[in-house]
Design brief:
single chain; 28 strands; 11-stranded mixed β-sheet; 8-stranded mixed β-sheet; alpha+beta
Length: 873
């Protein structure tokens, strides 16, 4: 059986190893050099060269240190993420049980070739695409490829079938998991020829664009460059017109232009992003690329996978319909908590409900799954599992759901096994579509059945009533039961029929069964996902669900999750009939996309992006990976996500929770708001500094501030205060605002005017302070000291104004950001030392101010913010 080792080696050489090609990861040097591609960083490097040429070595050293700090911070974040991703990756299937030279042996999955015969059983990860040769009740979880949460039954087909198209019953697919039964398969595709490999290959056709923040910072860099050129030309022209030396004026203009560059901006942006990444990591979101944080804040559409993201990916029995009554089960997923009620609100004692007890017993007997209680930290603290713990589940999810439902009624598999001894079993098969277990109960022998309603109901000649008596089944009553099953299916419940009969032998194909009930189960929406969807709606972020499941199932889940309000559902088949133009026109109407394939998901994301939306796409399976990579922000699931999807993603949710993603969106909005705040602060301050120097030269005044004093101003105002401003908490209404448009400029909302006007006032105040002290007859050193104090203090006051774009200085709590308060106190202490300590007075050419000089300097510092605050109020 199987092929020989010699044949395998020959095929391995021609076909290659059975591995999925992965995107080449950047090395440490490449990551580090990538930090220098920013426009602002390039401007700073140019300023460094000019500073060296002018002999301003201290300026050059300061700028180069800031550039290196920015690069190191960015490098550390990206390199750390690379290592975290490495830890998250696991082999798709490390080994396989394969027939070679007529013997069954275990080999590395990477050594499989076409023609190999492999054996699979429950719990195995399928290592390659295989044609099924033999199957015994074999079911595979193919959700990583199809998005469907229900395991798929497999049966044998033609041995020479080499077509590995999706959704074939006689093909098992690489990456899927065996959840039940056993199977023998013949390998028909390996590596990149598998369905998983083909989808992975689609990723190479998708390029990477700049994030909105990178585009905005590039725009800002151009503005700064233009300002520098204008300043240089204006100073040069003014000096030449006054008859100054041409070369001296050129050098002066260049020096002032360099002073206009906010050299702390790149590092401050990087620090703000890194801090946001750290906060998101604590909230279970791992960021792959720094700039993805801010892009999340622009999100206008979230395309979410259904299974495991919006739903729990845990089948749950929610109701059980017997012949006479309807019972409901509370408690979702694998939580131990839950109770059984009748007609919606009447508490039930299962002992008195004979039909219910028999139906639940049937579900427990017809099960190969196992459940056991798993204690949570909270339950340990409370000393009880009730209401706090979870079931630990092994085996088929559907069978586990029946066991949990029985446990809620006090019926355990172990207790049933003590009374009902199993004699034989007819396993669930995709052809017969039912399972039968023959057991003895004292002197009586019974067969319990579990399976499809359309298979078992026609074989039922009796039914059990609420008192536990068997009653003959009439044709009209059979129709009534069939209508009940259809009504449950219409509500997107997966319906299983439960039946029994007395028999001394296992004859699963016989009739004369006793109908016990219909079990209705679903994969319920996560409670936190419902809250997250409501939060997105408040933030004007559209949430859509994309799934491979049936349209009815998708619509039912969407309705329960709150996604279908005012929206429509569409299937992949219906999408195929739409042109790109028609899809772009109508896509805003849809909130549910069902029965979609990987190519559909990619098309949906591209359509939203063509409409100008910023799209965040979540996914866990390989089928999601192309769309995840195409989206503006790709989000993978850290728990259930495949390696391919994690490699394609920008963000990984470590808890697979949509609520975590919404919190990340809030952090992204906060980061962008904070970047605007410190850009406003830095540019206003730099305009004030440049205007002070420029107007002084134009007006023929002595040099207002010496180069070393300008350096001191940048030291105490551009560093800690700007960084602390980047740590501002999100404003209370940040998630009640619509996302900004993708084409919105960085200075939208009148930000540029705020910057320019405030910068002009800072410059005029500084000049006024310098002139006033000089008119007192004070020395040039005293006048410059007063100007220095005014310039620094007015900037330190302005930093508090920049905490909000909508509120004035006196309407905010001054202690709302204690890090900012601390940074301002440190900067104030440095300024005080520079003008009061004799040794530092020599270094910075300052003089201890008199009381009058100090009052003048401080008076001009506070005048402008006082006036502007009162005017805005």
């Amino acid at each position: 059986m199987g092929i020989t080792e010699k044949e395998a080696e020959e095929r391995l050489r021609t076909e290659g190893e059975n591995v999925i090609g992965e995107e080449r990861r950047a090395g440490p040097l490449r990551i580090f050099l990538g930090q220098f591609r920013d426009v602002m960083v390039m401007i700073l490097l140019g300023a460094t060269v000019i500073s060296v040429f002018l002999g301003e070595i201290s300026d050059a050293v300061t700028i180069i240190l800031i550039v290196l700090l920015n690069a190191v911070l960015g490098f550390i974040q990206e390199y750390r993420t690379e290592h975290t991703l490495e830890a998250l990756r696991s082999m798709t299937s490390p080994t396989a049980k394969c027939w070679r030279d007529g013997k069954l042996c275990e080999i590395a999955a990477s050594r499989l070739v076409t023609g190999d015969i492999i054996e699979l059983e429950a719990g195995d990860r399928i290592p390659a695409d295989c044609a099924v040769l033999r199957a015994a009740g074999f079911f595979a979880d193919e959700s990583v490829l199809t998005g469907e949460s229900v395991a798929v039954g497999k049966s044998a087909g033609a041995e020479d079938d080499t077509d590995n198209s999706l959704n074939k019953e006689n093909i098992v697919y690489c990456g899927a998991s065996a959840v039940k039964g056993s199977c023998r398969g013949k390998v028909i595709a390996t590596g990149m020829d598998t369905q998983m490999g083909k989808i992975s290959g689609m990723l190479t056709d998708i390029g990477r664009e700049q994030t909105p923040l990178q585009k905005r910072l590039a725009e800002l860099g151009k503005v700064v460059a233009i300002i520098c050129l204008i300043v240089c030309a204006a100073v040069f022209g003014a000096g030449v017109l006054r008859g100054e030396n041409v070369f001296d004026m050129l050098m002066t203009g260049i020096t002032i232009a360099i002073a206009a560059i906010p050299e702390g901006l790149p590092a401050t942006v990087t620090i703000a992003l890194a801090l946001a990444v750290s906060r998101m990591m604590k909230q279970k979101a791992l960021v792959n690329k720094l700039h993805s944080v801010e892009t999340l804040g622009c999100t206008s559409v979230i395309c979410s996978d259904k299974t495991g993201t919006i739903t729990e990916n845990r089948m749950t029995v929610t109701e059980l319909a017997t012949a006479d009554d309807e019972f409901f089960f509370s408690g979702m997923g694998y939580r131990v908590s839950g109770a059984v009620t009748k007609d919606g609100d009447i508490a039930v004692n299962p002992v008195t409900e004979r039909a219910l007890t028999e139906a639940l017993r049937c579900g427990a007997i017809c099960s190969t799954a196992e459940i056991s209680t798993r204690e949570t930290p909270k339950s340990r603290n409370r000393g009880s599992l009730a209401g706090r713990g979870e079931w630990s589940v092994t085996g088929d999810p559907t069978e586990a759901a029946l066991l949990i439902a029985a446990a809620k009624a006090g019926i355990t598999k172990s207790a049933v096994a003590d009374k009902f001894r199993t004699i034989g079993e007819f396993p669930f098969d995709s052809e017969t579509r039912f399972m039968a277990v023959h057991c003895s109960f004292g002197s009586e022998k019974r067969i319990y059945f579990k399976g499809a309603e359309e298979v078992l109901l026609p074989r039922c000649s009796q039914y059990m009533n609420s008192g536990g008596e068997t009653v003959p089944m009439t044709a009209s009553f059979r129709r009534k039961l069939g209508e009940k099953a259809a009504e449950m299916s219409d509500r997107a419940l997966r319906v299983l029929a439960l039946a029994m009969c007395s028999s001394d032998t296992l004859e699963p194909h016989r009739g004369n069964l006793v109908f016990l009930g219909f079990a209705g189960m679903t994969d319920p929406p996560r409670e936190e996902a419902k809250a997250a969807i409501r939060r997105c709606a408040a933030a004007s972020v559209k949430t859509v669900m994309i799934t491979g499941d049936h349209k009815n199932t998708a619509v039912a889940v969407a309705r329960k999750a709150g996604l279908l309000k005012g929206g429509m559902a569409v299937t992949g088949e219906e999408l195929n009939r739409l042109t790109d133009e028609e899809l772009d026109r109508d896509i805003g109407k849809y909130t549910v996309f069902a029965r979609v394939e990987p190519a559909h998901k990619l098309r949906i994301v591209r359509s939203f992006r063509r409409r100008g939306e910023i799209v965040t796409m979540t996914g866990d399976g390989v089928n999601d990976a192309p769309a995840v990579k195409e989206a503006d922000v790709g989000v993978a699931m850290g728990v259930t996500g495949t390696d391919v999807t994690k490699q394609a993603a920008d963000v990984i949710l470590m808890d697979d929770n949509l609520a975590t993603l919404v919190s990340a969106v809030e952090q992204g909005r906060c980061v962008y708001a904070n970047i605007r705040k410190f850009v406003r602060y830095l540019l206003s301050c730099n305009i004030g500094e440049v205007l002070t120097m420029f107007l002084g030269i134009v007006m023929g005044m002595p040099i207002v501030l010496l180069p070393v004093q300008i350096l001191l101003v940048n030291l105490v105002t551009d560093g800690l205060p700007a960084i602390a401003l980047g740590m501002e908490r999100p404003e209370s209404d940040i998630m009640n605002r619509p996302p900004r448009r993708s084409d919105e400029g960085f200075f939208a909302g009148g930000l540029m005017w705020k910057i320019v006007i405030r910068g002009v006032f800072i410059g005029l105040s500084t000049l006024a302070s310098f002139t006033a002290v000089m008119h007192l007859g004070s020395s040039a050193e005293a006048s410059r000291t007063a100007a220095l104090i005014t310039l620094v203090v007015s900037q330190l006051i302005h930093v508090f104004e920049c905490r909000s774009e909508s509120r004035s200085l006196f309407s905010m709590n001054p202690f709302g950001n204690m890090k900012l308060v601390g940074a301002v106190l440190v900067s104030g202490a440095v300024l005080a030392a520079a003008v009061a300590v004799p040794q530092l007075q020599v270094v910075f050419s300052t003089a201890a101010p008199t009381m009058t000089e100090l009052l003048i300097a401080l008076g001009f510092s506070v005048a402008v913010p006082l006036v502007s605050s009162f005017l805005s109020d």
